[in-house]
Amino acid sequence: MTDPVYPTIADCVGQTPLVRLQRMLEIDNGSQVLLKLEGNNPAGSVKDRPALSMIQQAQARGDISPGDTLIEATSGNTGIALAMAAAIMGYRMILIMPDNATMERRWSMEAYGAELILVSKEEGMEGARDLALRMESDGKGVVLNQFGNLDNPEAHYQGTGPEIWQQTHGRVTHFVSSMGTTGTIMGTSRYLKEQNPDIQIIGLQPSDGAAIPGIRRWPQEYLPTIFDSQRVDTVKDISQDLAENTMRELARREGIFCGVSSGGAVAAAIDIARSNPGATVVAIVCDRGDRYLSSGVFATS
């Protein structure tokens, strides 16, 4: 008898559940909303997929070696995922983020051994990205650059897209994803459109004045270079109130504990299901709600 081969934590990234809404989809038109629970990844978000991919592929190309210093600007989920991946593979990780990120996000990164550099809320992600590039030019490490690194969307082309196609038995008609770095929607769209060009891809951005963690309306000069507008059929604006209210409803009525951008994605998916009888709408629930508790968004009073 041969000895069993047990998985490592890296082997547990991906193959997340796809579950249907039960109580919040109050329509009877043959449509359904399915949620891809990316918070079930080991570090708790959809970003586990590209984080591991970017480090693994850079190492395979010989661009980096264990022991090297990696640098990345992040608003939270990518940083946590990269901190985990760096711990798995033996890299020093420096993460740069705005100082208005929740404490849960900071603590999670530090728990994995990452070093944090904070920029002001006013500098935001643009300032964090600029600082990362300056540090790289000063020889302080290698920037993985999730915003321009093709290994980011490739992780979703290889993983998220095929999983959704298989889990829906090819019945998916609409795919909904919030857009930040845009890796999730780029890679998943590419795969799903190859299987069925009629699948509609819906990307979400915050409405004017909204500050939804993880999704952005980028200034043109900071627009991720991995983004290709032709891979998105429709871009919808999501308000802060709708995203937060839906997030709270998901926890209280469906038992699905997620973050604000996921609430926005589910709100859009429900609207699409109502307007398209017989649709099978898949939305990305990109992370877990526990990393937002200190912000007060789940408070009942």
UniProtKB/TrEMBL annotation:
It catalyses: O-acetyl-L-serine + hydrogen sulfide = L-cysteine + acetate. Pfam families: PALP (PF00291). Residues 10-287 form the Tryptophan synthase beta chain-like PALP domain. Its EC number is 2.5.1.47. One of its GO terms (biological process) is cysteine biosynthetic process from serine. Its cofactor is pyridoxal 5'-phosphate. NCBIfam families: cysKM, cysM, PRK11761.1. This is Cysteine synthase. It comes from Thalassolituus maritimus. The lineage of its organism: Bacteria, Pseudomonadati, Pseudomonadota, Gammaproteobacteria, Oceanospirillales.
